[in-house]
Design a protein that fits this description.
Elements lengths: L4 H44 L1 H6 L3 H53 L5 H42 L21 E8 L8 E8 L4 E4 L7 H8 L7 E6 L2 E2 L5 H6 L1 E4 L10 H5 L8 H10 L3 H5 L23 H15 L3 E4 L3 H4 L3 H20 L3 E5 L6 E7 L2 E7 L4
Parallel strand pairs: 3-8, 6-7, 7-8
Antiparallel strand pairs: 1-2, 1-4, 4-5, 9-10
Helix pairs in contact: 1-3, 1-4, 3-4, 8-10
Length: 409
């Protein structure tokens, strides 16, 4: 038993070392991942809003903002590095003790005639091999648990349970006419009261309705409830007699075409962006939709640094290579091509601050799109509030259109 004692003692000490250091390294890795996310987020935030930073001439403040996150990240990194270095040093000491004790014991046994020189060579070789393997196991353990810490930090964000899920065996929405009904709808964003309380109204097939109100009155919230981005706190929303909460979310949103307040595009070609709601659409249909949205002319003049032009040109992240009005027209073309039975046009941010004459032109463009859509019998909700607004009543065939236009009094 005596020759085995150094190895048994070493195994106990080695396992105790791993149990002591590895969990701490895992926790430090999770913290460092969080600090890395904070640092990256601050840098991206500053670069994304670089125009605002320059407008207020505050680059030093943004430098300090990012530098503070960098200091926290560095401190966490050094803390983890100290633990790894201390663990590595402890294992190295244990390995040295193993080799020395094994060699000393083997020589003592040989002097007493208990073992041969071959046994000494074998024991010494095994001790050296074990020490090398222990170093490999240590670094692999560190790598595994570092990754576990990083994954744990990310899983906390991406693996949260969804509160908005389809009911078991929920059917697909069948929107045959496009009739919309809100019945005693209540929604408060988790608060005790406010926003929407017992709201009821109906939109008939082929009807166009404008929702008018001050900023924050809940107009866009109604659209989000219709799209079921949130579940109502009370009441229900029906499309052709079907509760939107009882059908699948994908089928619901496939039946609604929407141009949002914040018009952003994918970092892809113009054609891919217009086709997004109808990927199998032929190029002729893409061009026709762009013409309807008055986008065809400027699209033909587009190009990117890779030599792609026209509908093949890429628009940059979120469409940054286009103006706000151009992004809006591409978004309108995308919705026109989708040809859903229900159309929702939320107010465009770019239109808020435009001059009165431009606002009138934008209003006419929206009205033209609405007329074309109504000719196909679609239901529409157009949200365009303003502090100085008036409703423009227009007629298209037998349909009455109410457009809330950006017109100064």
């Amino acid at each position: 038993m005596a020759p085995r004692r150094p190895l048994a003692l070493w195994i106990l000490a080695y396992v105790a070392t791993l149990r002591h250091f590895v969990p701490q390294i895992r926790d430090r890795a999770a913290l460092m991942s969080e600090m890395r996310s904070v640092l990256t987020g601050r840098i991206v935030d500053s670069y994304t809003n670089i125009q605002t930073v320059k407008l207020f001439a505050l680059p030093e403040r943004e430098d300090d903002y990012a530098r503070a996150a960098l200091a926290e990240h560095t401190a966490t990194f050094l803390s983890e590095t100290r633990l790894i270095t201390l663990m590595n040093g402890t294992v190295s000491v244990l390995n040295s003790i193993l080799i020395m004790s094994t060699g000393s014991l083997a020589v003592w046994l040989w002097q007493n005639g208990a073992v041969t020189l071959g046994a000494i060579a074998l024991a010494s070789g095994l001790a050296i091999r074990i020490s090398n393997m222990s170093g490999w196991i240590m670094w692999e353990s560190i790598g595994i648990f570092e990754n576990m810490g990083t994954v744990q930090e990310g899983v906390g964000t991406i693996a949260r349970p969804h509160s908005l899920v389809d009911r078991p065996s929920a059917p697909a929405l069948r929107a045959t006419h496009g009739a919309i009904r809100f019945e005693n709808v209540r929604f408060h964003y988790g608060k005790a009261a406010g926003v929407i309380d017992n709201l009821s109204f109906a939109i008939a097939p082929g009807e166009k309705v404008g929702l008018v109100g001050r900023s924050g009155a809940g107009k866009s919230t109604l659209v989000q409830l219709l799209m079921r981005f949130f579940d109502v706190d009370g009441g229900r929303i029906l499309i052709d007699g079907q509760d939107v909460a009882a059908v699948t979310q994908d089928s619901l949103r496939n039946q609604i075409g929407m141009v949002t307040q914040d018009t952003s595009l994918l970092h892809r070609s113009v054609a891919e962006n217009i086709r997004y709601g109808r990927p199998d659409a032929p190029m002729e249909a893409v061009v026709a939709a762009a013409r309807q949205a008055h986008a065809h002319e400027f699209v033909l003049g587009l190009s990117d640094p890779h030599g792609r032009a026209g509908y093949a040109a890429h628009v940059g992240e979120r469409g940054v290579k286009l103006s706000g009005g151009q992004r809006q027209r591409i978004a309108i073309a995308r919705v026109l091509l989708k040809n859903a039975p229900i159309l929702v046009l939320d107010e465009a941010k770019e239109a808020r601050a435009s001059p009165a004459r431009t606002r009138q032109s934008a209003a006419r463009a929206w009205a033209e799109v609405a007329c074309k859509w109504l000719a196909a019998g679609a239901s529409q909700i157009i949200l365009q509030p303003s502090a100085s607004e008036r409703s423009c009543r227009m007629t298209a065939a037998k349909l009455t259109i109410i457009l809330v236009a950006y017109v100064t009094a």
